[in-house]
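Homework-ish question, so no full write-ups if that breaks the rules, but can someone show me the predicted structure for this set?
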Amino acid sequence: MTTAKAADTTIFTRRESEARSYCRSFPTVFTKASGAIMTDVQGREYIDFLAGCSSLNYGHNDPDMKSALIDHISRDGIAHGLDMYTDTKAAFLEAFENLILRPRGMDYKVMMTGPTGTNAVEAAIKLARKVTGRRNIVAFTNAFHGMTMGSLALTGNTAKREGAGGGSLADVTHMPFENAMGDNNTLEYIEWVLENPSSGMDDPAAFIVEPVQGEGGLNAASAEWLQGVERLARKHGALFIIDDIQSGIGRTGPYFSTEGMGLNPDMITQAKSFSGMGLPFAALLIRPDHDIWKPAEHNGTFRGNTHAFVTARVALEKFWSDDAFQKETLRKAKYLEDRLTEISAQIPGSALKGRGMMRGIDVGSGELASDICARCFEAGLIIETSGAHDEVVKVLAPLTIPDAVFAKGLNILESAVSAATGNNQIAAE
Amino acid sequence: MTTAKAADTTIFTRRESEARSYCRSFPTVFTKASGAIMTDVQGREYIDFLAGCSSLNYGHNDPDMKSALIDHISRDGIAHGLDMYTDTKAAFLEAFENLILRPRGMDYKVMMTGPTGTNAVEAAIKLARKVTGRRNIVAFTNAFHGMTMGSLALTGNTAKREGAGGGSLADVTHMPFENAMGDNNTLEYIEWVLENPSSGMDDPAAFIVEPVQGEGGLNAASAEWLQGVERLARKHGALFIIDDIQSGIGRTGPYFSTEGMGLNPDMITQAKSFSGMGLPFAALLIRPDHDIWKPAEHNGTFRGNTHAFVTARVALEKFWSDDAFQKETLRKAKYLEDRLTEISAQIPGSALKGRGMMRGIDVGSGELASDICARCFEAGLIIETSGAHDEVVKVLAPLTIPDAVFAKGLNILESAVSAATGNNQIAAE
Amino acid sequence: MTTAKAADTTIFTRRESEARSYCRSFPTVFTKASGAIMTDVQGREYIDFLAGCSSLNYGHNDPDMKSALIDHISRDGIAHGLDMYTDTKAAFLEAFENLILRPRGMDYKVMMTGPTGTNAVEAAIKLARKVTGRRNIVAFTNAFHGMTMGSLALTGNTAKREGAGGGSLADVTHMPFENAMGDNNTLEYIEWVLENPSSGMDDPAAFIVEPVQGEGGLNAASAEWLQGVERLARKHGALFIIDDIQSGIGRTGPYFSTEGMGLNPDMITQAKSFSGMGLPFAALLIRPDHDIWKPAEHNGTFRGNTHAFVTARVALEKFWSDDAFQKETLRKAKYLEDRLTEISAQIPGSALKGRGMMRGIDVGSGELASDICARCFEAGLIIETSGAHDEVVKVLAPLTIPDAVFAKGLNILESAVSAATGNNQIAAE
Amino acid sequence: MTTAKAADTTIFTRRESEARSYCRSFPTVFTKASGAIMTDVQGREYIDFLAGCSSLNYGHNDPDMKSALIDHISRDGIAHGLDMYTDTKAAFLEAFENLILRPRGMDYKVMMTGPTGTNAVEAAIKLARKVTGRRNIVAFTNAFHGMTMGSLALTGNTAKREGAGGGSLADVTHMPFENAMGDNNTLEYIEWVLENPSSGMDDPAAFIVEPVQGEGGLNAASAEWLQGVERLARKHGALFIIDDIQSGIGRTGPYFSTEGMGLNPDMITQAKSFSGMGLPFAALLIRPDHDIWKPAEHNGTFRGNTHAFVTARVALEKFWSDDAFQKETLRKAKYLEDRLTEISAQIPGSALKGRGMMRGIDVGSGELASDICARCFEAGLIIETSGAHDEVVKVLAPLTIPDAVFAKGLNILESAVSAATGNNQIAAE
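A: Not a homework solution, just the prediction itself:
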């Protein structure tokens, strides 16, 4: 930190659990945020290339969402109503039906799960088991689906799995994600295991897949591979579940990251940017024929965060009434790709990862990635790593980021890469 | 419904999953709420004796919380900051330290888990397993700890457990709660199982217990029994975890439902009314020596809901700076007890359940309980059942409910009981 | 050992695994055995009150079985035929049908499992799960059903369970055996758990019970209690499985230990004395309607030990063609009871355990029991302990033991008890 | 059957469980057997190419074993002694030490498990978990390790796994066996999964592998692949367990099927031909430093079948005192390979499988394999199939089979193949 006086963080070290994490990478105290800028207690501004891990696709504190939420609170709109019917839930569901489902020819029931991604995932695997009468779920290497026991069993990361303290993480088979082992699509292997009656793999209830693995290192699956997974699922009587929590809601361009791929998932999870404003909110989209839940069979106190209904509706109306936002995202994604391609060229052996506005550079080691991110933070850019070895520097800017701010942030990244790799001539540009 | 025109609920039946539940008991559309009153789309007002299942202990839309939250939003305060340091989190932690922990001589680290009760429970059992190197968790009959797979394994309810669709609910031993089988404290049985080296019970990592079981039927444990459970846990090298999600935060009078009982839990879960205003928020309180989490070992996108930090801090400052609120709650609890005792007298074989402002009547059957609640709703009172057979009519009014409104709500309940049981002479009073 | 030259046991300590056990209590090398007498390498004779843990109910090397087996081997009778049809298997099955099933009005299919008790138990629980579509098995405190993972999950003993090294021992609920906690029949508790829809107990596929728990301390269940267990099983759609491995085949008098109790088990396990001569042999008796196995769905190399078919047939014909043997056993059992009652009177706080010729004395501590057994061995009697704390000195003499030998063995026991407890005046008798 | 009067098998269909299997393929009643010949009740002789699934490597009723066993029985040698020290056990252990371990420079403790292969496997995985403190075991596709729950979890076959009736088959990861998916050694894949910290695979306690998969289709692993598996196990802190139950004890030539491969397994299982005469007998060989069992931590009534000690000792002394038997086996194996190569040439797309005297032909379909075996039986040859689809006709002749009988059996097989495939010109030879 170059600031004269470091922010006082003693209350956190004294009272907050050792489990805290991001705060360790960004050792200051933030006080406000707007659009793509976060401001700390000393008034220093940071460009946000983390965006709540894709929870802030529309940026911080969108003025229209703020205004609608303040209005809602001011008029004593429901803040908490369990899962009772409310006007705001109705308005949200209507917007979701009219702006998202209908235009895409999709027919799904919306299950308001607890307002966290992991809760939507847990609901999905429970329902898949109920629907099929089978127990085994296929998840993929490098997958991240959450930290509660059901989702953790699906998660690939060893360090995360050890958090279970030895509790059973059963009923899951992990399969290699596309290109996980180099230049192959892995479908052949998966098919061989499924078709071999002596493979030791029990019949799957479902396949659950992230179209772009976020925590796993920005691994983007191709349409062909995802189609192959769906085809194998159908052939073997299993459901096909898309976990679009980090990759969806515009992050790769379209609302769902798999639009145009010819897929027909049985369930789709929604969270992170689902509320529009970063409020806790999650849902499970379910093909109507699979919606065999009994009332309250999966319940929860905070399912259907009412404040989130308000902001989520605004987000849908503001950004998804036509295709302008999606086009704008794809335009920025092209710019991002070009810049990252240049930056990546500085790092021998590096590789561009991801898709749309969910991109990053595999810099080859967690040490280098961490060094780059630390230099960026010094220079006013919030950016993080992902991947099995934390080896990917990932850019998850708000989709609404102004071009100039985006460029400025990428310039900081470029300079940090130069400095970290010793290519100072480039850093001088 | 006696209203001229029923609220339009077609969007919900068309688009919301069959898992929805409370809305089925209260078939109208709510639009606003304040204090103890909810108002529907036709302007009809209902007294709220459900209070978000104890998530609204301070009532709906407390004006001071509203004002602080609006101010926070207006000034672009952080809405979502992952688990970065923010001024609002600092202010919340300081208030929690100064107003809750210090005055009670308690020393706990605060783990911001995903903002749902089940996430706090999952974190607790994962950590207990890590700390002890054991897998088995002791939970109690009629326990309810959540719907994600780890918490669901702890939960007693068969219908809820069947939601797992056959997924493994392992590593848990269920023991009888106090008086579960009639007039005995059950500690003797539990001790016998623990001490018998051939009982088939594997050494426990922890005991997790709700001091007053909410969903399980308002079963209130005595101080002696809870002390006994803690003593057995200590003797057998297990942690002692209090799940105070529904019973805590003033519901039984003091902030923690176990204050004054001489207990020293290793962990305490917090959720429901923790944010003060019904916003999603949860935490796990951990004795510092047990806080062995590695950074991010249990993480989550929404841990530390920033809006909730704002309202939770206001709640602490407003209601817990002195003992006035607690005294007021105990006063109301006495009134509630008196009224429920009278009402219970109408129902042969019924029994008063619960403690503090978490009370109810076991009316003997789910059918009668359901009939009573339906009659209440017709008359403008929102009230629900709990218990293994949904046989308990429970009163979970906001603690801030004005005396007159409280009386009016109880009058409605009394009349409904009379009508349902045919004691019309009483109903006529 | 008082013998001049101890037997050479170095080969065992050098080459046999530390898991070896009985040899540690009886540190000599045995060379031959006949009836109730074992002889060691120095020619010393020992009365055998262990009888292969009830595997030698007819004594060692019964001359008729020997002769039939020698004849079979001499004529190149099949020694190993997998599960092919053989004349000896046919003869055995016919004898079992004619002498055991028909006279008792029982109709069971015989499943030749691997020739160990644990294999029969594993087959039983697998089949119960297949038949009911449920996973949970109810086993009892102090139960012992075997060491393979499925049976071990049923077993109560902690030291044995720790042998699993942390492998999952799931899908089992342990319930208290009759009088396990003192003077109650425990059925009330079991029923309460089953009937309480919030007990956390998943619907059981089966109850498996030993009528007299052998390893668990010679706990003999009453007819009333076993009827109660069967009634609860039926009421809740679960199968009722009798594990008669140690208690059956005449040990308590009748062939099955539950004869005359009005029970109708769905399955019965057979092993230990099933071959008559101590050869490995086991079977699962299955009510025909439950015999839904597909061919080879549970197979094994040694199922149907052909040598055992030969000796088992002889045993059936010799001992079960009429009721003489059963009557003789009951006569000896009465004598045993009288003698043990007297011996028990020497030990304050001791209690008589078991039933029939499966009796013992709970002497109050493992130390005392161990001391008594060591003194017995010095005096020429092989006798062992059982129970959760190894606190029961158990008498499992061959049922064929001559009266004089039986009396002599009991005299040794009586003296050992006197010496161990310091009651020398009694020892002098 | 071409016999005038079929054998009476009604007792079996009336009383033996539907689980019975081999008897369905060989619908006659056998009465005696000697060497490589089995004789049925009508006096018809069959050449035995099944040999108890490799349990009769020395043929039926070896005269020296018979004689020693008859002598033992005649002199009242111990038939059942639990795991007490006996002269016969000592003699067996000394022979095993002197003839097997010492000449091969091997140092192992011998654990007498229950006398079935599955019990030895269960002991191995329990011990591996105890030694490493880890739970996960790596087993391979097409593996067969037994039918009890622990071994069944390791087994690849779906039909067998379904026998568990839904009981948990947890704590196992299945990996592809060498060439399982065609022309690759699969080590690269296994290594990638182990080294990827986000693969979702938990650290393994052990790898367990059959050097030649018997039930899985006679898949023979190369020395290089097995070395690779051991290397990966060592690198990742896991034990390396060889399951040599079907492949060992001379079946591929040397006593252990992996001799000369430069392997150093932590444990080796022994069963099937271990007793020499087909009697139930099994053991687990344990590297001394891993022998951390507590006394009786894994016990069993029939561990150490005393009759088997007698015959097993004779087998060791007769066949393993020098290398003559091994050489003779390899000579026969060469002849077998030549003949099967010729026979295989008749079947388009067929492939030779296995190693040593554990060979077979993958004929491409279970239907054809079954047809061939049925024709062989008609012609007086007992032969069976294996493989995931029962597509391999396997030759498991006694190693002691006389050349002329071996040739005659192979002639029958050749004719049956010709007839089944319509190549009558060859059948006419």
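Now go work out the reasoning yourself. Hint: The CA atoms of residues 83 and 295 of chain D lie 11 Å apart.
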